[in-house]
Amino acid sequence: MKLIEGGVCAAKGFRANGVHCGIRHNRTKRDLALIVSDVPAAAASVYTTNLVKGAPLTVTREHISDGVAQAVICNSGNANTCNANGIEIAEGMSVLVEKTTGIRARDVVVASTGVIGQPLSLEPIENGMPELAAGLSEKGSEAAAEAIMTTDTVKKEVAVEFTLGGRLCRMGGIAKGSGMIHPNMATMLVFITTDAAISAEMLQKALSSDVQKTFNMTSVDGDTSTNDMVTILANGLAGNTPVVAEGEDFTTFMLALNTLTVQLCRLIAGDGEGATKLLECTAVGAETEEAAKISCKSVICSSLLKAAMFGADANWGRVLCAIGYSGAQVDVSKIGVSFKSSAGSVEVCRNGAGIPFSEEEAKKVLTEKEIEIALTLGDGPYSATAWGCDLTYDYVKINGDYRT
Amino acid sequence: MKLIEGGVCAAKGFRANGVHCGIRHNRTKRDLALIVSDVPAAAASVYTTNLVKGAPLTVTREHISDGVAQAVICNSGNANTCNANGIEIAEGMSVLVEKTTGIRARDVVVASTGVIGQPLSLEPIENGMPELAAGLSEKGSEAAAEAIMTTDTVKKEVAVEFTLGGRLCRMGGIAKGSGMIHPNMATMLVFITTDAAISAEMLQKALSSDVQKTFNMTSVDGDTSTNDMVTILANGLAGNTPVVAEGEDFTTFMLALNTLTVQLCRLIAGDGEGATKLLECTAVGAETEEAAKISCKSVICSSLLKAAMFGADANWGRVLCAIGYSGAQVDVSKIGVSFKSSAGSVEVCRNGAGIPFSEEEAKKVLTEKEIEIALTLGDGPYSATAWGCDLTYDYVKINGDYRT
Q: Which phi and psi angles does B398 have, rounded to 5°?
């Protein structure tokens, strides 16, 4: 398992591009992305559980119901959600892909991200398609990653290399993060490509299982988006014996997927709206996996703890408070808390009560850009990790006037 | 039913006081409150569901297990939570009340609020008790209300007058709000007194029922406190025929209690940490009471919506998003949203989709200090209300370095 360059074009037979087509006013910001596979690919997807769903999700779900897709089109600047003609527009986007690339409309994954409830016109997309398609390239992952950004400050690309049945395979992904990030049984916008050969059924199984431990353990602001989606395309061009059941190859594939998605989660959380710090909360010693996961996620979701981390304040009482109200079944008298970073480690709470620690040392640890909040919940065998970010003035600023 | 002055001393036979005893460094901030009844009173209480519980709650629960209490002591500046000797200190506080006032230690309700996990010493409390007890007065509600404040910017006192069986009764309350406010099946620190005669059993029934529609529908930051508690003392000095069962008098009592608690909720939400605006979300037309309550509460808890309200931005998509992920069973295609304030009313969404509206007019409505987010969920008979506040730079500032 090796991290490599190339993002969503690292795998054989995938090309991508991103252009500015005019959905956004800012002419320097790309707002339309396209990813295509040279051949039809096995496809799997998970979606938001929000009852208010973006129209593109409905169209995508229908398009990949046969387990096959060959392209992904995604615009930013408008979520195409809560619009009366949303389905029509999302279908129209896939028809535009067919017209320009020859890939069947029903093999197109459609996604949108941006403001909810503002009409989206096909006009800029139609105008941008020729340039978008003409520029498709094996070096186009970066342009695509930029085109799906909303309030993201950095593009999010990761790729890994692994071996299945003696064949070298690659898997890469791009993500859009930043705000309305609190995936619940699904996730935000992530597009993953791989040249591994794997059945659509096993691909869905791998993805559905992985998101429970990765994207569903990530939160920026507690708001589950209406347009959350992760899609993975596997075109089989690596030439490995197709993965069609559980076994060694499937395990390797799962490991590759997890390596990729954990990195994307860290990128998404660390670039949360207004964030200055990545928070990683780890729990060990839990009696159940549920208790470990619920505790970690509650801690990284606490507004009070997030604000304390912004201020580099070792206010561990807020960590205990967040575990206490999380609903996790834990024995409070066994809880331990340490703050860790590249600057060191400070234990602040043992057996549910405070212990003396150096405020100065804690300040040093918490002033770093990546903070681990390490929980010990007892002597049980279960552990979990969750990713979040601090709560800052800029979060308020960004969201106080997002639409203008 | 009439709003009156006097707070927690409005009811006959109650005196109160608040002093600075030295738990806080700021010598101008009162930090110790005492409320006493001339005679033993029926008592009822509800507590936080946080597994991490302040020691005072354990002591209070034991003390009022016989349905009787005669005094409330409460300090601010230290929550007496997650301390190894917490129970001993909380018991010690009630013993100090007995020594100074003659009221039995086991008839004392004990409460603390402030930083979690810092040792609390009895010394300043012991030193402050003589002045605190000597100053007890029928005009002391304000001093007591000030003494329980933490990051609150205004003291919170309300009182009402009502009639039970021809006798004039009074009920008053004080509250501590501001941060770590997201009561769950219980509530924040609220002390209510009444001279109505009512059995401890009916008092508990009234309180437990009322908090479901009031404090449990209030949130500042989504963090359920470890020290949440509402206690009510009824000393019977109004001379009415005691309320011992359901019926007209109990209904009147419930109405008085609800009038009082709704006002306290509005005060707590409007004075949320850093808040510039009170948000009141109302829902009508729900198919179930649960759907109405869950929808309203999810909206006022959304960080994104709270930030939009701070920016006076009519971003109604975030309202729909918050209803969609709330878990409430609603038909999205029936949802309507209007923003209302003293400056007018603007309908922004009908049948789950946006409708044209004047951004200028919406800005005017949302620039006011009290905003109603009015939801229509369909044609059902149920309704609900929830209270919250906007998310501001000052919330981050206050909580970035709370302990110092």
A: -60, -40
Of A52, A79, A303, the CB nearest to B221: A303
Question: Half-sphere exposure of B198 toward its Cβ, with a 13 Å CA cutoff?
Answer: 33
Considering only CB atoms, which chain B residues are within 8 Å of A399?
303-304, 307-308, 311, 391
* Exposure letters B3-27 (e unless 16+ CB within 10 A, then b): eeebbbbbbbbbbbbbbbbbbbeee
Determine the residue type at A328: A
Tens of pLDDT, residue by residue over B254-275, are 999 999 899 888 888 888 888 9
Q: What is the pLDDT of residues A301-327, one digit of tens each?
A: 998 899 999 999 999 989 999 999 888
DSSP helix/strand/coil, B391 = coil
**Burial (0-12, 13-18, 19+ Cβ within 10 Å), A25:** exposed
**Active site annotation includes A404:** no
| Backbone angle region of B236, left / alpha / beta, with phi > 0 → left and psi within -120 to 50 → alpha | left
Q: What is the pTM of this model?
A: 0.81
- B312-354 pLDDT per residue, tens: 999 998 999 899 988 899 999 999 999 999 999 999 999 998 8
CA atoms of B13 and B237, how far apart (whole Å): 7
Spatial separation of the C-alpha atoms in residues B218 and B28, rounded to whole Å = 30
Of A50, A82, A354, nearest to B354 by CB-CB distance is A82
Distance CA B345, CA B193 (A): 38
C-beta atoms of B318 and A116 within 8 A: yes
Beta partners for residue B205, in sequence order: none
Q: Which amino acid is at A212?
A: Q
Residue to substitute from A57, A82, A87, interface B, most B β-carbons within 10 A: A82
Q: Are the beta carbons of B390 and B299 closer than 8 angstroms?
A: no
- The phi, psi pair for B22, rounded to 5°, reads 115, 5
HSE at residue B94, side-chain half, CA atoms within 13 A, is 27
- DSSP string across B288-315: SHHHHHHHHHHHHH-HHHHHHHHTT---
E strands in B25-129 = 32-47, 68-76, 108-113
Whole-angstrom distance, CA of residue A344 vs CA of residue A363:
11
| Nearest alpha carbon to residue A185 among A204, A213, A206, A205 | A213
Hey, is B263 helix, strand or coil? helix
Q: How many CB pairs under 8 A join A and B?
A: 206
Residue with tokens 């520029």: A135
Name every chain B residue with its beta carbon within 8 A of the beta carbon of A375.
Answer: none
Distance, CA of A325 to CA of B81 (rounded, Å): 14
How much is the average pLDDT of A325-347? 94
Instruction: Select from A241, A236, A233, A240 the least CA-distant residue to A168.
Output: A240
- Write the residue in A354, A396, A399 that is nearest to B396 by C-beta: A396
Cβ(A233)–Cβ(A42) under 8 Å?
Answer: yes
